[in-house]
Design goal:
Amino acid/polyamine transporter I; 12 helices; 304 residues; mainly alpha
Length: 304
């Protein structure tokens, strides 16, 4: 998330994806680590910063994505042809082979992170009823954005000749292409870049906080050093934050040995796509174990 935040700022400043050509891998890794540190400082000193970032970032990104889908429909309504040809129903039917099923990891990755809200269930007014509703809403929103977002990308991109840095800059190219098609230049690009920056900062804040809280939850305090579970005046596990930052910094430093920024981004994304399904399996198995013992876990959500 830190590297995605950095990339979004690069698009805001340059109006293009040339940052990957101007910045060395080591500087990319260093700045990503700096972003982690800044966020720890913000969350440690600014009360409710996590909530505000989440509300603003999540809402803005959903609205912008809906806008992209609406503009795609309007574009097609003008009788303009999609960039991908053939653009038929048959072309959308995938070939069910090993390669296709291996990409399902990225679909799971799209939903991963949902389990990160579990540490906040006890803070909800009625977590027992509202949390399942929130998960259903999240699944519906993710499915909608994945299906219609992919459809829209096929309209403005030639799926047979995709840019080599699609994973890193594809969403920016999409809004740039849409702006060019409607004759308004980079307006959509800058709107999306700013929204993406806020959204990525919100995601980073949530993942740092929720992941640390989950790792340092009440059920694990008996097995971890006391200093690691220390909380500040706002109830934040500050030392756990630093541990998370250290681990992420190490990964970024090791990634700096790769050829270029695009390779680093793809490698980290693929790593998430591989690891996330295993994490989801562990979370789901924990959920099953909780449900199999209703006498022990009667009403509260408990993560083991």
């Amino acid at each position: 998330m830190a590297n995605s935040t950095l990339i979004s700022f690069g698009w805001i400043v340059n109006g293009s994806g040339k940052m990957s050509n101007l910045m060395s891998n080591s500087m990319f890794a260093l700045l990503s680590s700096v972003i982690f540190t800044i966020f720890i400082f913000i969350q440690h000193h600014l009360k409710n910063s996590l909530q505000w970032l989440s509300i603003i970032g999540g809402s803005a990104m959903f609205i912008v994505t809906i806008l992209y889908v609406i503009m795609t429909i309007y574009y097609l309504g003008q009788g303009k042809a999609p960039q991908t040809q053939p653009f038929t129903f048959k072309a959308f039917i995938p070939k069910f082979d090993f390669h296709y099923f291996s990409t399902l990891g990225l679909v799971i990755f799209a939903m991963s992170g949902a389990e990160m809200v579990s540490p906040y269930v006890t803070k909800m007014k009625n977590g027992k009823k509202d949390f399942p509703k929130a998960m259903w809403m999240l699944a519906i929103m993710t499915g909608f954005l994945t299906v219609f977002g992919s459809f829209s990308l096929g309209v403005f991109f030639n799926a047979h000749h995709l840019p080599h840095d699609l994973k890193m800059n594809g969403s920016y190219y999409a809004f740039l292409a849409m702006g060019n098609e409607f004759g308004i230049g980079k307006l959509f690009l800058y709107i999306f870049s700013i929204t993406q920056a806020i959204y990525m900062m919100a995601q980073l804040a949530v993942l740092i906080d929720a992941g640390t809280r989950m790792f340092l939850s009440d059920t694990t305090k008996a097995y971890l050093p006391k200093q690691l579970t220390k909380v500040d005046e706002h109830g934040l596990p500050i030392n756990g934050y630093w541990l998370t930052t250290g681990i992420c910094t190490l990964i970024m430093v090791l990634s700096a040995t790769l050829p270029n920024m695009n390779t680093i981004f793809n490698q980290l994304l693929n790593l998430n796509g591989i690891v996330s399904p295993y994490v989801i399996c562990f979370v789901f198995s924990s959920f099953v174990l909780v449900r199999l013992h209703p006498d022990k876990y009667q009403s509260q959500y408990v993560y083991i």
